[in-house]
Amino acid sequence: MPTRKGSERVKNKNTKPFAGIEGGLMENKIKQLVETKMLDEIILSTNDETCMAIAEKYAVKDSRIKIIPRPDELCLSSTNLQDLICYVPTITDAEHILWGHVTTPLAGADQYDAGIQLYLDNLQNGFDSLVGVTELKNFLLNKEGKLVNNTTDIPWPRTQDLEPLYPINHTMFLAKREVYVEQKNRLGKKILLHVMDELHSFDIDWPDDFVIAEMMYKNLYGNL
Length: 224
Hints:
Elements: H1 24-34, E1 42-46, H2 49-59, E2 65-69, H3 81-87, E3 96-99, H4 109-122, E4 129-133, E5 168-176, H5 177-182, E6 191-195, H6 198-201, H7 207-221
Parallel strand pairs: 1-2, 4-6
Antiparallel strand pairs: 3-5, 4-5
Helix pairs in contact: 1-2
């Protein structure tokens, strides 16, 4: 679980109060992860002292939680994602690695456990990784105005007959360790799509997203 100081689009996004939770998205995600049954280790990789302090409160009760300070050069807005991917296997010897984000506050323990179980059940089928996605069936145009996902022979098919596309929702990237080490990637060569509903897939990227996520969270769980 990577976090860093200096969120640019939403100030203090990870730690400012969220839906009545004083420790914000960071505390919410820690609480969700400690409720999982399938995770053996929970690693917070960060340079944010506030995130560390929040995680430390839960680490006292759950020995799975490990807080590893991340080098500042890997916490810049200009940091190459590839460098961060290569860093991950240096801080854990786990055979399988799940990469998740605090910015998906509605993805809870049930969603993580379901994704992990789906992944484990399909290793024998040759899959080496899994990613959380949503299914999108809508009319999509390219910059030339051409419908890109119509595989029928009629110009305006029913939306349910359109070729589905699968946006990554950033809830989870799950892969074998060798994918990180050998392919220097967080998704391998045979990727299993974990199709999730839009509610639990919601990801916070912009200020409006934060407000919407709070309303969704409060509607589901009440103001905690």
